[in-house]
């Protein structure tokens, strides 16, 4: 029997109802999604089933994964954070500016942090060899960028508004437009990945990935805010999105922590 959007809608509603009951019964707010969130079928196959493995750094003679790779300003070019300038021609689609701050739980800036993004093009297609969506590729848009946060924890990207796309988990499954963010910490083993969404997307209620963040307030922290002052005259719309790494106002990080 083919899994339909109506089936997923019922499962999402049941998960939300169960969460509200847990809160009413005195359970703590769940800022992060449960790893076995059933409406998102892949989570059942991909999430870790064992607790994290602790590594005693003092007993590791190599510590290579805890000290490298190292990223510095020499590794970032002036156009790495401008995805509209990385090819000879102009990419197709609405140009947008995305900016924000990387913060810890106390609101302190995280300086010199490598931030990477990747996304679909304006037609909702990734420039990836395993992409199955038959929307057109854009020869002038690869959809990847990176930058370092400044002394105040700010990052800044210029890019193209990504399109929604089908993802085949169930019949008529569509992902809301989003941009993936990757934060590296001081080593690859500390890498965190999350997603930024856009205001008032009509696909939010139907998407089991964003709905896996069951708490409403936590889910809203994944949605950027339109900022007219950030919009560039005659060029791009502006969106602000801060990322909080831990604490009660932390931004959802994929696969938990």
Summarize the structure.
The protein has 257 residues and is of the alpha+beta class.
Helical region count?
A: 5
Rg, alpha carbons? 19 Å
Give the helix/strand class: alpha+beta
Low-confidence stretches: none
- Helix proportion: 10-25%
- Beta-strand percentage range: 15-25%
Total count of strands: 11
Order of helices and strands: HHHEEEEEEEEHHEEE
Q: Using the alpha-carbon principal axes, give the shape.
A: globular
> What does the largest sheet look like?
5 strands, mixed
Give your account of this protein's structure.
There is one protein chain. With 257 residues, the protein is of the alpha+beta class. Helices cover 15% and strands 19% of the residues. Strands 1, 4, 9, 10 and 11 form a 5-stranded mixed beta sheet that branches. A 4-stranded antiparallel beta sheet has the order 3-2-7-8, with no helix packed on it. The radius of gyration is 19 Å and the shape is globular. The mean pLDDT is 88.
Outline the secondary-structure elements.
Elements (H helix, E strand, L loop, with lengths): L4 H20 L16 H6 L17 H4 L27 E9 L10 E5 L25 E5 L5 E7 L4 E2 L7 E2 L2 E6 L8 E6 L10 H4 L4 H5 L4 E2 L10 E4 L2 E2 L13
Parallel strand pairs: 1-10, 1-11
Antiparallel strand pairs: 1-4, 2-3, 2-7, 5-6, 7-8, 9-10
């Amino acid at each position: 029997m083919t899994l339909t959007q109506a089936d997923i809608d019922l499962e999402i509603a049941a998960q939300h109802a169960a969460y509200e009951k847990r809160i009413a019964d005195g359970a703590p707010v769940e800022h992060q999604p449960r790893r076995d969130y059933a409406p998102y079928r892949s989570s059942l196959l991909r999430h870790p089933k064992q607790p994290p493995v602790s590594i005693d750094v003092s007993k590791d003679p190599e510590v290579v994964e805890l000290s490298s790779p190292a990223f510095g300003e020499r590794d970032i070019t002036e156009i790495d954070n401008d995805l509209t300038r990385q090819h000879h021609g102009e990419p197709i689609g609405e140009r947008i500016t995305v900016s924000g701050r990387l913060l810890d739980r106390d609101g302190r800036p995280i300086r010199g942090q490598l931030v990477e993004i990747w996304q679909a093009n304006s037609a909702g297609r990734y420039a990836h060899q395993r992409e199955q969506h038959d929307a057109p590729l854009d020869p002038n848009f690869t959809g990847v960028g990176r930058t370092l946060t400044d002394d105040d924890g700010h990052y800044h990207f210029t890019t193209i508004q990504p399109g929604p796309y089908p993802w085949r988990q169930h019949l008529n499954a569509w992902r809301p437009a989003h941009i993936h963010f990757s934060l590296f910490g001081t080593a690859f083993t500390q890498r965190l990945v999350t997603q930024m969404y856009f205001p008032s997307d009509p696909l939010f209620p139907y998407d089991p990935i964003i709905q896996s963040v069951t708490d409403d307030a936590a889910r809203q922290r994944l949605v950027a805010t339109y900022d007219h002052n950030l919009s560039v005259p005659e060029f791009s719309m502006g969106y602000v999105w801060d990322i909080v790494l831990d604490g009660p106002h932390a931004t959802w990080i994929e696969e938990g922590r």
